[in-house]
Amino acid sequence: MVWDAVDEFQDRWERTINSMTEDIEEVAGRLGKVASNYAEYNSSAEEEMNTVKSAAESLPTRSADGRILMSAKIHICPRIQDRG
């Protein structure tokens, strides 16, 4: 009787562990996809911002009479991965 209960417990335990392992693998796959999507978005956004930066840097910084119109230096926030 005791051995039957132990066997039943062991079977349920094994099924539960296998199910949890499958769930964790699914979560890991989804998180990998999220990270990939974020990296792709970040790269695309960086390309767009570089275009804007180039356009801004090509604008004149002084008027015809020498007055400063805007700073010539454009700073774009560093990417998260570049932060130490």
Largest sheet: none
The overall average pLDDT, rounded, is 84
Bin the helical content.
Answer: 55-70%
Structural class: mainly alpha
Which residues form runs of ≥5 with pLDDT under 50? none
Any overview of this molecule?
By secondary structure, this protein is mainly alpha-helical. It has 1 helix and no strands.
List the helices and strands and how they pair.
Elements: H1 2-57
In short:
With 84 residues, this protein is an all-alpha fold.
Can you tag this structure with a few keywords?
mainly alpha, 67% helix, rod-shaped, 1 helix, 84 residues
